[in-house]
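Task card 7
Instruction: Convert sequence to structure tokens.
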Amino acid sequence: MKNNKATIFLIVLLSITILALIIFMIAMMNKRIGFSFRNSFIQRIEELQVEETYKNNYEKINIKTDAADIEIKKSENEDIYLKIYSEKNRAKVLDNETELNIEVTQKKCVGICINNKLSKVELYIPENYNKKINIENKYGDIEIESFENLNLDIKEDAGDIKIGASNIVNINNNYGDIKINEIKVGTINESAGDVEINKVNSIDIKNNYGDVKITEINEYVKIDSDAGDIKINNLKITKDSTIETNTGDIKIDNTNEIYIDSKTDIGETRINKNNDKSEITLKIKNNVGDIRVN
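Output:
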């Protein structure tokens, strides 16, 4: 009898879990659930705890935060300027000859957490800064202005990421949208959220749930998506590339003279311009969805 009750309890619990997951995924795909996590942190901290100027041209700047909005902006001169808004004794900055380490922690929370507080990091760097910035953020949005020579490595658990311009970008994001204006080389791993890029030379994207939109690609592309549409306006590749999605439409408006090897299991395929003598091949594949090129 006890075993039967335990079995029934497990079945009910599993059913509720599956139902909740299905509702979440449907809402997410219909854009009813956004990926901005600002509403989870109603109280923004306005107390300025750190305000410093650094004249060292660091080889590396590391930013590690538990819950914070992070903004990287242009400095008015060649100095690096830092402002941190946080709770008292929660911000720590370590300055040495080659690295600037910035860390902002949050009070530990057990159980259901209310009255969470969101810190803020404002970093101002010279426009021609050509070194590397590493960012690790658990919750909060990241916004970076245009720095054409900057190299970025971003690890985000939950929050939106917006980048003006950069050189080499590596992004790992679990939940949140990614929007980039222009980069040279990019690698993006996204669990749930849309990816939008204006201009890129070489890009490698792995996205589980969400759409991918790119205006211009000039060298190489590799996109691997589980669920979501892929839209590219102008594609001019110089080496073999691949675009794959399990569920979703793939549409490319314009390509250079390349050979397009396409396959869909359930859906329609229309390739209007295809050069079977080209030495460059673009492989396009999806399981469910239409493929449209040119």
